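[Meeting: bench + compute handoff]

Bench side (C.D.) handed over the final construct sequence. Compute side (W.E.) agreed to return the predicted structure before the next meeting so the bench team could plan truncations. Sequence as handed over:
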Amino acid sequence: MDNIRIHGFQDCTSQIASNEYFGQSYKDSDSTRSSDQCVSAHNIFEAGCDHKFTFDADGSCSSSYRLIKYLCLNYGFSVSFEAVEEVFKNCFFQLHAAKFGYQFTENFLSVMNAHRDSFVSVVDSILTDLYDSFSFLRQLGDSNITLIELMDKVCFSFSESSYNLRGRCCDILQSKFIPLIINSIFDASVIDGGLERKMTYCEMEKFFIHYITTLERIVMSRIMDYWNNFCDENTSMFSPFSGVSYRDPFYYAHHVYGVSKPVVTCPAAFSNKFGAFISFMAVAKIDCMINNFIKERLGVIKSTIRSKCTSVHDKIVDGYNADLVGEIKKIRECFPSYISGKFSKMVNFGSIRDKLHNFLKKLLIWDSHDVGIEAMEESRLSLLETITNQAHELLKTYANDIVYAVTRDFHSRIIKSRKIVSRVRRSVRTVKDKWGVCLHPRCSHGILSIRRKFSAALKEIVKSKFCSMINDGYKVSGISSISKFTWNEVSKDMFPIIQEEIRPVVFKEREELSVLLSKARIVVDNDKFDGSYSGTREATSEEIVNVLRIAVYNMNVQTKSLIRAVWSNVTKVSREVDSSAGSVMSSKQEEFVNVESYSESSLSGKDVDLSAQYGSSAVSSKLVYASLVIKGDRIFNRWGLNVHPDDVDVILFIRTKFSKKIKDLVRIFFSSIPNEKSKLKRNNVFDDYKWSDISGELYPIVLEHIDPIIKEEYSELEEFLSKARVVVVGRGDTSSCVIRSVTNDEKDNLMKRAVAIIHKELRSSVRSVWAAMNKISKFNFGGDFKDGEVEKSIYCGIRLRYEDSMDIVNIKRRFLFDIKGCIVNIFSELTKTNKFPWRYVSKDVIPTIKKEFYPIMEKEREELDLVLLKSRAVVGDSEYDKLPEAAKYREITYGERSEIVEFIMACVYKKAIDVAGRVWRGMIKFHDVKCVGPIMDNMEFTSAAKGRKFSDVSFRLSDISRVDKDAIDNIRLEFIGSLGPIIDEVINKVLLEVGGSLSSIESMVDKVIPVVAEKSSLLFNNSGFCDSLNSLLSSALVVGKSRRSIFLSDKERDCAYQMFMDSVNNDRDNLIKKRVIKLTKYSKIRY
């Protein structure tokens, strides 16, 4: 019926034909039939309501096609509407449900009515363009045009606009509204027999077609409303045409201008997505079935491809030299054919084809070409093939994407694994340096893994204990609010408590470490070693004990660092909570776990007796025993008793704590010697005396000065030793031991030994402080900040704590290095064309370099401010001994802080200008020498870094692990020690050449430095120092913020090498200056 061309009111024949299909009879009428003879809108929308249609499950009954004709009645361009007000009643769609024996719920009806109203609003906004069709009436009264011609133009314009706007409305209906309507229908429920149930698919589709076709008919109805209103408003204009009716504009548009109605192949509710006209509801259902099928099959495909790639990846160890990347690429290339071969089996023998076949039998298919029922039934089979083929193509597309993603992932894994295996082979020597033997990398990684696991446990335990102590108001040394102090200030009291708290976990960690090392293997052949067992052997008992010794030592160091870090975090949280009148545990309860539950859950393993913390216990594991007596000989020789290693650590901690306090007090005393002359026999200055000459007089006075601290140290040691433990080796089994508490006699003997050790180390400490203090007045050639400045600790008359002064000096050193690098970057270009002496160019050059290093100084100023905010000033000497530990220092005022900062920055500026002069002189004098000191080294480094500034390098030698740093220092000291004869030889040769005619030390140094620099460069490169340094840096470890050790990167290695050379060259130049002074007998000349 959709291909019938409408001429005039013959569109009504489509309505009549449909009604004849239901047994009703109408007679044709001529083209001049008036509009009131057409079927009313109510009859159009409710035609056939008295006919009950059933739908066969197999879809073979012709009623299914009759049902579609009924549901889609008057779709398209039917103009036989007078009004459609019935459609806008809230119960209109309930009539559809009633015809099929059920009812829609009120909620569903309200949703569908809302969709209808929204669509009608959009249609009305679009159809406003129809008003432009009536603009021809403005020509009314023109003598050149008749009324008939004018009406023909109006009909023509209105018809064309109607055809175009209807198409736009249907497009919007299909693109924006149908998806929402489908979702609403899928979720719908109906009431059947008084019970609520979900709609069957057939019910959904029938209602969907009826609903969408109703909306489609509304479009043409609203269009005709515009025309009918126009006719009603201009009735007087049509009075001359008594025999002509303009109620059908489309007839006159076709009759006069040949405008034909567009051919609509199917109602708006249908789509031709799969090659047949099926409803959008059916399309959505089929898409859902295909997507579910593809999702299920993609899971199988992904599992299969991952399994194949995993089998290739697992060959990385045994088949290191195999072309594993090629195998992955081969899998990627061959898998599409695998998909094609397996798909037919997936479809034919799976449930998807049966599901699709059963579903297609229920579909309502639009007979767009009147091919007949049998032909339409045959189209269902082709529809099944079309859907299956599309599913196949989609599956292939998605499968190819998955194959590509998985193979790309495994390709990357293989590349990384190869790098790891290669690194493992290269790192065997590094492992040997770390553990003393070529330990298997897996065992080495296992040790680190155990450390990480127990570090997490220790962190939670320590955190919980700290929070408990803060919230309970724990006091140390009279301090009521411990959260306001740093770990250095409270550690002396809190460390033993924390150590006792974490002892069970530490014991458990050593147990797991022992179990791991009992299976350790040693790499003996690097060429055969492939990361597995090839080229390895079992570790001997001695090797295992040595590795255990190193691991336990590292564990202790890291645990102490962890405790310090946790304290810093907890006190920070505590201060934030205090500012909001809360408590640590109340605001951060979620962050802290229960210690006991944590120990039981995360540390569960084989049973271990942890009762050692409360009394004696037997330890039968040989390796755990080894870890307890790991320093047995040294401990016994020192204490005369095999004290538990953990208790020895606490004793040493107490000794270190009081040693620092003693040094601070001795340092203050030595600084005040000019004010203490009444106590001394000599009235002269002591700066030039060695300690051996003055100790007889000063040492007794020092002992008297520090006697309160010594007594405090004795008291704390005696209290701790009363709780110390002893490790007793079993008589019958030397691989087991017993841990017990010390007896009173043993405690007295330990105390006597402790006192002897204290007095022995005390004399050495006092001597070292005197030597350091004596450096204050000594000559400093190096241009760097030396320890004398730290020992002085006085800025603008304010004495700072030693650790605060050390922080300030470290900042000054670091930023001086950056400033020096900045100056080198500038001078490396200027000295290429300008070789005038510094005294001539300094006035012009200084403003230039000042602009460059000024931002660096500003950053230094900011860091100094932050350090001084936390710094403390030492109180007067007369009050010092009378005050408790926490009261010996006071905060620095704002004015004092500003004064100190300005004083330091003035010194930094002066030092920077001095460095600039030395750099300039070095560059213009030794520009052609390959290695003449820190200047040229910095230039080479800048070139190697491709223009990077020194301030951009965040790496420092202090970041390297302690072991590697000590090894680097050994190389530096050995090399500097070997320069002495060379320097003396050059100096003597220069003196002979000039015959003592040099006017100053500066001119002598300028003569000596380039010669020594060249000779030292040859010595460094040819005597193995360079190779040793490169070898060490290639295996050196850097300790990150997370306390994890990682290898140096290439850039960090270059930076470390340059920093080393800079330090060596600086030491060399200092040595030259000292030797020049010594040999020329100038003892106090400043350069």
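W.E. noted at the follow-up: The chain has a mean pLDDT of 71. C.D. will use this when planning the next construct.
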